[in-house]
Amino acid sequence: MDAIVKMLEKHQPFFEKISRNVYLQAIKDGFLGCMPIVLTSSIFLLIATLPGVVGITLPQPLIDWCNKLYNFTMGVMGIMVAGTTAKNFTASMNRRMPAGKVLNDGSTMVAAQCSMLLLAVTQFTTKFDGSELSVFDCTSMGTRGLFSAYIAAFITVWVYKFCVSRDLTIKLPKEVPGAIAQNFRDIIPFGGAVIICGIIDVVVRNLMGVPFSELLIKLLSPLFTAAETYPGLILIQAATAFFWFIGVHGPSIVQPGIDPIRLANQAENLQVLLAGGHPAHSLTFNMSLVGEFGGTGATFIVPLLLILFMKSKQLKAVGKASIVPVAFAVNEPLLFGAPMILNPYMLIPFVAAGCVNVSVAKFFIDNVGMNGFSFVVPWATPAPIGIFITTNFQLIALVFVAIIILLDAIIYLPFLKAYDKLLCDQEAERAAELGLESDGAATIAANASAPAVEQTTASVETAAAAADSKPVADQPEPTSDASAKKDVDGLKVLVLCAGAGTSAMLANAIKEGAAQTGENIASSAGAYGQHTAIMDQYDVIVLAPQVRSYYNDMKADTDRLGIKLLAPRGKEYIDLTRDPAGAIKWLRENLD
């Protein structure tokens, strides 16, 4: 198994290159920017529908009002994603533009939204009260139009790049105010993007008889069908876990390509549920509650197993520290603390547990009568609660949850026990070397600068290196006490991770450490991809290990803005989240 891990390490740069692909980044970050739409609209939908489950009848005007709010948020999801995807793609493209030439992200955002409407929406006339009205078919304005949104965003930004790079813009005298001059400079690329998408729309409608959005759905329907089979679900889940195992944030690679399918299926499930039918789609947005039950690798039960069944002081400590975060799907303390990532003992259960979970879920949906997921809940909702809610409070869902918890425990326990024996042997050896009794290993582990597992290929250092394969050569080594006294008064720190969960842990530790030491330091947490509009307000930006593959792109932006960029290694990052005073000291040591 060590040979497999070494092979994975060898190819990690290739997988990281995939995760940094500008198109995947733009899709992921664009969709992330619209997550408030998904979550907020779902609240109104729950208000309108769930009281009926327990026999409570709400006033019809209130139900209609909630449905209206849902339709005017989730119903225009596609349009909004076109804009946010174009905005993020523009930011990536600007890093590659010649000096002095910049794309206007506000203009590309609006142009992409207009282009998406041309590709996805059908306009027709109808009579109402004797008058002829022009009407938009709203079907593809929402999640059904996400593919059109992505195509519109990419076409728009490339047209802008072509025009701006070649100075194909309208230039006004220098006396004209900059804001007005910029509007005129954007006319040619804006018009070019809209015209190209308009031509595509005309060609597709005349040749195929359907709008562009329907064409994509028609052409990709075999993919949709294949993805919702047992092999399809297993492949998706295995790929997500596999990439995380080698230190690359798996959801960032896998999910952008299937999000349109997942959201469309979930919306269809909802319509079937409201009509009194059985929602049968298993590949939905909140299927991640099952496949990533407690986080990627289906680690929900693992901290409890560590506490109850492991003898190693290291694993027991990791279990106690991670049990609460993992309950809320923040499992980085477990991934880097055990470690799970690039640990040869954990490869099989880390990949297999989620695959088993999604297979059992599909079986329950297809054969036992459990509803497919219909409502959207926040990603940090504890998985058992989220599954119960999204299946419309079915009791069979609780049975399903109990079964997958048991299965995950059975999958993980043998591998954890084998790994535990290795650590116990090493702890005993280290205790003996220092002339201590075996039960003194806990003291040694607490005072050691590196964990006891460092002698194995599955060491924490190896795991940390996997999560941060790009060395941060520009980070200085810890300095002397004089450096430790460096002034950090008024410092503003932004911590970024993939979903603002892990970053909140370090941001909170910094706040607590600042209070303990009397330092005037402000810290905030955010998700990578949503930082571009606010990053210039901070003095220091810290990248969590899960987004460290974006270090080079981020460095270009922070250098331009004069911001210090830090990227601690996996184990180091987790240690900082548990040591508020140490987090402040670490900030001092790493300031120029």
What's a concise summary of this model?
This protein has 592 residues and is mostly helical.
Structural class: mainly alpha
Provide the β-strand percentage band: 5-15%
Biggest β-sheet strands, sense, barrel:
4 strands, parallel
Q: Which parts are unreliable, with pLDDT below 50 for 5 consecutive residues or more?
A: 440-486
What is the arithmetic mean of pLDDT? 81
Strand order of the largest sheet: 4-3-5-6
What this model shows, in words?
The protein has helices at residues 2-10, 12-19, 22-33, 35-49, 60-71, 77-94, 105-120, 146-165, 178-185, 187-208, 212-227, 230-245, 250-274, 288-291, 302-309, 313-327, 332-337, 347-368, 383-390, 395-433, 441-447, 460-467, 481-484, 502-517, 551-561, 570-577, 580-589, and strands spanning 122-128, 131-137, 491-497, 521-527, 540-543, 564-566. The chain has a four-stranded parallel sheet with strand order 4-3-5-6, sandwiched between helices. The protein has a two-stranded antiparallel sheet with strand order 1-2. The protein has 592 residues and is mainly alpha-helical. The protein contains 27 helices and six strands. Helix 25 (551-561) links the parallel strand 5 and strand 6 (564-566).
Q: Key features?
A:
single chain; 592 residues; mainly alpha; four-stranded parallel beta sheet; two-stranded antiparallel sheet; 27 helices; 6 strands; globular
SSE blueprint:
Blueprint: H1 2-10, H2 12-19, H3 22-33, H4 35-49, H5 60-71, H6 77-94, H7 105-120, E1 122-128, E2 131-137, H8 146-165, H9 178-185, H10 187-208, H11 212-227, H12 230-245, H13 250-274, H14 288-291, H15 302-309, H16 313-327, H17 332-337, H18 347-368, H19 383-390, H20 395-433, H21 441-447, H22 460-467, H23 481-484, E3 491-497, H24 502-517, E4 521-527, E5 540-543, H25 551-561, E6 564-566, H26 570-577, H27 580-589
Parallel strand pairs: 3-4, 3-5, 5-6
Antiparallel strand pairs: 1-2
Helix pairs in contact: 3-6, 3-13, 4-5, 6-7, 6-8, 7-8, 7-10, 8-10, 12-13, 12-18, 15-16, 15-20, 18-20, 20-21, 24-26, 24-27
